[in-house]
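Example A, followed by Example B.
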Amino acid sequence: MIRLTKYIPLFIASLSLIGCGGSEKPTENANDSTIVKTDIDTSKSVVFYNIPSPLETFTILKMSGSAFDKTVLNSTDKMPKYFSSFSKAVNLGVYSTDLSFCYLYKQSQDFNAYLKSINELTNALSIDGSYGVAVNKRLQSNSNNLDSLMAIVTEVGINAEQYLKDNQRNTATSSIAAGGWIEAMYIVTSIAEKTQKEDIVGLVGDQKIVLTNLINMLDQFKSDEEINSLLIDMKGIATIYESVNATQDQPVVSDKDIISVGNNTSYKLTKEQLKAILEKVTVLRNKITL
């Protein structure tokens, strides 16, 4: 069985949140009884879990022989439907995952369509400087080089994430991460159900650990109604994983593009479990993408 990462390492950063940041500002009058809803939580430290890059997962898809399937992506035609800050943030994560899928399969036209949508959502969310004049000039000058475009987008993504964290826009950061994971999960689970290939089904099984950590991260923001709605659906998916057992595979020696890292723990799914996960993931994905 092909594995780029057998047991996903998670980098956990604890951020002490002190004061306010970002574009959200408190009212100037200390006696004003108006409650202002912000994206800032100053009452406690927040733990962020790095969710594995979709490229990591999609690389295994491609190595397993799966072809590009545009039907599993979220159409950019839906952009006008995303009005709220939450829908913009969660679908920024969705479209970023779709962009990674297009990049890996060298679909230049689709890549550029998703890049345009990501640019619009980033600007709409006031993520400072992400796609400013200088970045857009770089993108335009490299428009025919997909690898260069992806390198620029990756750099911008890292800077945007850091900007959100520095400015304590924690629900936005978490919503983007959740949207990216949900879309990657939908793509992989859909293809796994269609192909029934062991390697791809194994990818779905391995998401058990990632889902647990994503739930732990989002649980810190469950007072937010939209985040809590995500949590309810994700916990529904997690209940299926409770019956999924861990197994130990034989170690795989590194050879060419096949790399084994970690303790070779896998989570084996039955056809029934895979189908049940796909059904719940599809409901959640349709809910966030409208």
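Example B, a separate protein, is given below in the same form.
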Amino acid sequence: MDLAQAKHAFITGGASGLGLGIADALAARGVPVTIADIDAEALARVTGSRGNIFRGVVLDTRDREGWQKAKAEAEAVFGPVDILVNNAGIAPNGKPFADMAADSFDRILAINLVGIYNGVLAFAAEMRERGRGHIVNTSSQAGLMTTVPGVGAYSVAKFGVTALSEQLRTEMEPHGVGVTALFPGFVQTNLGQNTVKIGGDIRQYSDVVMTSDVTPAHVGAMVVEAIERNDPYIVTHKGVWRGIEKRFNALKAACDFRDGA
């Protein structure tokens, strides 16, 4: 997509973390940005420190009526959305499936997967009709491979985002609309605090030291480049293939066995 022609970007989870990094990167390219977030105070802080190219709207991505209201409010100011970034999410709850409360499982899927579908539902058909646009869906490295115990529900949601994005790209590509799946690794954000704010449980990483040189600003730059190239995937960190390869090798072995290789 030629960003010089982009008129309006709508970004969920946009008041902090990766969402804000992406918003800043797009705004730096001259794209007016609506940042949607459940945290009204954070929205006010962000929009108050930036120019008129930024505006904020309060949105719980689980609320389909709220999506329609936020869409109408945003497009009344900046016009039709041609870049949608479905980024809002919450952290893993740290529980194995056998011990996980049903409401915790439901919350993780409702926000991390169904919330992304709700964004697609709100905007994709009109992008298809106009024959232009780009959608970025935030998955995770946990949407490419299973990882440590305690992130199971999160991984289920993120694998779902991966599948949704791949299928959506197949559906939208003939109509001139690009779709990219974003697979971030660990980036220092306030994801944990935001999860607690909405009543969620978070995984405790007390026994794991996680550091990263990748910042939200770095991810924002990656997303801008991927939109311009219409890349299907963005992997933010090095070394990811080692984990993916193990899974794919096991799948290949199963296929080879059935094929008699």
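On Example B: The domain at 3-259 is CATH 3.40.50.720 (Rossmann fold).
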